[in-house]
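Batch job 17 of 40 flagged for manual review because the log was empty.
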Amino acid sequence: MSIEVNDSEGSIVQQNITNDAASYLFENVEFSPDLKLEDIFGLFDACPHLFQIYQRLHAGALCKDVKKSNPSDEFKTDLLYVELSRTWKFDSHQLCYKEVDDFILDGVGPSDFEENTESIDGSEQLTNYSLAFTPVRHIAHLPLRLANKVRVFEDDAYSRKYNQQIQTVHCTEMRLGAVIQGIFRSVTWFGEPSEMETTAEKIYAMSESSEDWSEGISADDFIKELIAGADERACSMMFKSIGHIEAFTIYQSIDDIPDDQIAWQWLQMKFGSELEFRSDCLEMTGRDFRKAFKEAGVNE
């Protein structure tokens, strides 16, 4: 693996860093088109110091798993390559970005949907696929691509758009250490390889169970158990009266109020005049009302 560095004369040259990758973790990298995912794991054999640096991300177990792959018995897949992309989080209320990048390693291949088999220009339509529960040895032979588009998500917990994508920006720079960390975090989300496969087997067994899942608890009942009366506590603090409207129905609608719209006007348009608001809530915007409502639900 090579990176661009300045030589003693100030000229930019390519320098092979494979045997000393640990010294270049904070340098920007640009990968060649023929780079494969397994090449990233190959850095660890060439530079054993990396094992200690990434031991918390199960570096040893992952590298052993990659070595189990046999080129003559390659895992059959329609994926064309794997793609490492980044997401950033932005708090629009505090006007600040979260410092830590989040990484996602997806598989990219032809679309499964017949109506979307071609793009506008006639080329084959590609789709990103989750690699959750996919052993890394099954995808190690695939080419590795770095996405230059970064998706930005809302990080203000009281915004209507919380956890929704609000922007896409372009960023072509990525440090070697971040690339390794992003890949390792993605493929160990459910633990090291053996632990992940055990979890996958348990989930598969549950899905094949003879028990009729449709007779289980409903989504609404599950949420009601989860919030444990937060809807009723919040309504008692924010309203003088809610009439015949269920507190849970109001709770489900709170996240839909536009951030900058006056909350009581929006809620009365939705539920009618049965709602009577406390005087200190009448000037609250959707965001401020949502914050107060959720905090009131937590405080008993």
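Reviewer: the log was empty due to a logging misconfiguration, but the result itself is present. Confidence is low (pLDDT under 50) at residues 115-121. Unflagging and moving on to job 18.
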